[in-house]
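User: Modeling request: complex.
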Amino acid sequence: MKKILVPVLLAGIFWACGGNDSSQNEASGEKPQSMVEDKEAYDAKRGVGKFTTVDVGATLDKAMAANGQKSFDIKCASCHKLTDERLVGPGWAKVTERRTPVWLMNFMTNVDEMIDKDPEVQAMLEICLVRMPNQNIADDEARNLLEFMRENDGVK
Amino acid sequence: MKNSFLYLSCILVFGVLATTGCKPKGTGSAVAGDAAQKAFVPPGKYDEYYNFVSGGFSGQLSVYGLPSGRLFRVIPVFSVDPEKGWGYSEESKPMLMTSGGFEPWDDLHHTELSQTNGEIDGRWVFGNANNTPRVARIDLKTFRTAEIIELPNSAGNHSSPFITENTEYVVAGTRFSVPPDFANGDVPISSYKENFKGTISFISVEKETGHMNIAFQLLLPGVNFDLSHAGKGKSHGWFFFSCYNSEQANSLLEVNASQRDKDFILAVNWKKAEEYLKAGKGEKKSVKYARNRWDEKAHTGVHEILNEVTVLDATVLQDICYLIPCPKSPHGCDVDPTGEYIVGSGKLAALIPVFSFTKLQKAIAAKDFDGAYEGIPVVKYESALHGEVKKPGLGPLHTEFDGKGNAYTSFFVSSEIVKWNIEKLEVVDRAPTYYSIGHLCIPGGDSKKPSAKYVIGYNKITKDRYLPTGPELAQSAQIYDISGDKMQLINDFPTIGEPHYAQAAPAELIMKNSLKIYKIEENTHPYVSKGEKESKVVREGNKVHVYMTAVRSHFAPDNIEGVKLGDEVYFHLTNLEQDWDVPHGFAVKGGNTAELLIMPGETQTLKWVPKKVGIYPIYCTDFCSALHQEMQGYVRVSPAGSNVPLTFSLGKNSDDPKANSPETPK
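Assistant: Request completed. Predicted assembly structure:
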């Protein structure tokens, strides 16, 4: 008797409270975005960001490089050495030979998207385990840093 | 037998459930229909409004989202907050200084958002300190306390920090009348009537910077000024204050300040006061009070003591102040969006008197007075009265407005919000609160332009609303949808401290200005290290200054030796990050303060006086990266007189072949 009554009783409660809105968990109508990136579209030489071309001179712009060094001291030197030795992030030696100027400019100014999308940065993240912080580097500041990297790599 | 008894009981229970199961009765079932959908903000979505809620005896101000009731931030204002280092870091200590020294606590009762043309402008929110009278200004770009000014000649600053329609002034008043600071305070308490005075301070707010300054103080009879609101629109230029204890009792006020049938609402013509001030009728009084401002570039509070205030004697200077009789110890004093109606709420009354600004002006012009109280003319009650809302409930406290001709008044004793029509003085709806509501808030509800989608009740008693947590319970708040004709309870949330008044503003007004980082290039802190290259340790006598940087995930330097017993060590931490939401924390073993929490681009200082020889670890307290657990270092403390030289390093391990690498800091 007892065993039969319990479900009946529960049903009674549900019936008694019927009319409650059951649609509150309905999806808001937004379609989930695909997590899979279209790898074909990714340009590994350019990266992703606002820059499509970056003109660098044959010779060094010393003033720009000097300003670049100032930014390096404040925003980069905590994690990057100027040698090929890795500190938190990779050393900067020969970075301008490993990467194109436009890739470097996009990486400095669009850090988070580049970390998420660039296969080589992803591989580097597996080694370093610390995502490069977005240091809010302005476009001209990034250009100065690029010039400083060139100086570090021996451009006169 | 047993079975049939069970059967019977089940039938009974079923019957009761079936008949009463869904009827809103008691505390848990007053929510109906689509309430959950109205209050639900899906994960990843934003709330519609910011709600700035006073923290009462916590001394802080908390920020919630509406309609979700989610807590976003507790802004430290008048009380120390070890979580954020507020009142513990060397930079924030000056913000809590008063004329009587460092005050680690106060009681923040009311919040008020700055306005331009009578509308919320989203720039600042003000808060009052009820114990040691002060007013604070919080910057809504940074959600930080930017300035605190102390009020001389005052006690129990309760009728504050209400503002005029262009934030020309923030006001402050004496809930506890006292002998002014410039007079002898060593008098018998029983000489209240002779020696105790009330004051109302008008604090000017500089338009661009928000800097506060006491423009003038009105000297008034010794009564208790309770709450206030500025006139607006047609009544701009006036300010209205409720006052009780016109009996001037100094003991057992519960009984002795409730003798008269009517106390007063004080109407202040502050434009007239400005004229007297300009004409040099103010008297400069020698007093002592603190003003503390936060320098956003130096990341440091600057404390100063001021020594003079200008006082206008409103009992002698004509036409500044008038008293309107108001029944039964008025509490709330609220002005409707048109500026025409002033609602007084006698907290012991069973009616709500509504005064008319137009009728008040006529009565003043016609000198339609009922004598004077201590030199201030008393306007005849009926001459200023628009009308009374009869039997609205018990114990009216506060009123907010919807801009559609309705007022919403909280009733403490009958525990409800009552909606009534201002013009017709008729009750149109009522909703119970859980329990004993104090203040209430409609976004923009005291401005010219309310955004009347919700009303929130802040309750004094919680009892059974939430899971019990021992004798002490969080204060409860409830959100009602008021977009329709009827108030609908849609959400219930616990709050910090004891909220009194709260204000709310549309999210888009505030969020667009929210700062993400402090630019490291603009940091002018005297002990900043702009990059690890500038990190160092410097000894000045027995003071050791550590210029230290933090970045994901190390400190520079992280090994320090040569500190001796008797030294005072100052860790000046600069967070080199320039990314949103990457603070670093800092703590040292045995530090008798709190942690530091340093925002990107900021410098903060922790003072540490080691008491024992040994090795002391330091570490980052705010999880910053996958290598956060590695963000640590050591400080060696040697005996006084030791000859261990002062050295510091980063990356030098004893058996590390790179120990002398030229790139590592010295």
